Write a sequence for this structure.
């Protein structure tokens, strides 16, 4: 992921959050995200909730970048947008509802690992 794109998206998400009242639980999305919380946010009609989830997913994608995250390795193409990553994770959670109670970082890493495996060396 392009660090500038991630920062711009984070600023946009924060601006959207400032425009509408945020519930007290919004802060929990960042620190204690589960697959269920990410799925609800990605399915929400509220741009602020979608932005928080997409930012979380982008952060996991940036941290991983070819390195294991919770045992999963993925290589996300540079051209992928935060919206595309969010759609990928949402579809994966749809297909694997049993993972909704797992930690968000592991759910994201598993989804990205399935969608974007690293080339064999």
């Amino acid at each position: 992921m392009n660090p500038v794109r991630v920062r711009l998206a984070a600023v946009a998400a924060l601006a959207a959050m400032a425009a509408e009242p945020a519930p007290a639980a919004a802060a929990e999305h960042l620190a204690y995200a589960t697959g269920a919380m990410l799925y609800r946010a990605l399915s929400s009609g509220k741009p602020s909730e979608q932005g928080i989830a997409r930012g979380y997913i982008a952060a996991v994608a940036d941290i991983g970048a070819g390195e294991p995250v919770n045992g999963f390795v993925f290589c996300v193409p540079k051209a992928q947008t935060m919206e595309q990553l969010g759609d990928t994770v949402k579809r994966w959670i749809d297909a694997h509802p049993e993972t909704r109670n797992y930690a968000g970082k592991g759910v994201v890493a598993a989804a990205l690992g399935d969608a974007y495996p690293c080339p064999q060396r």
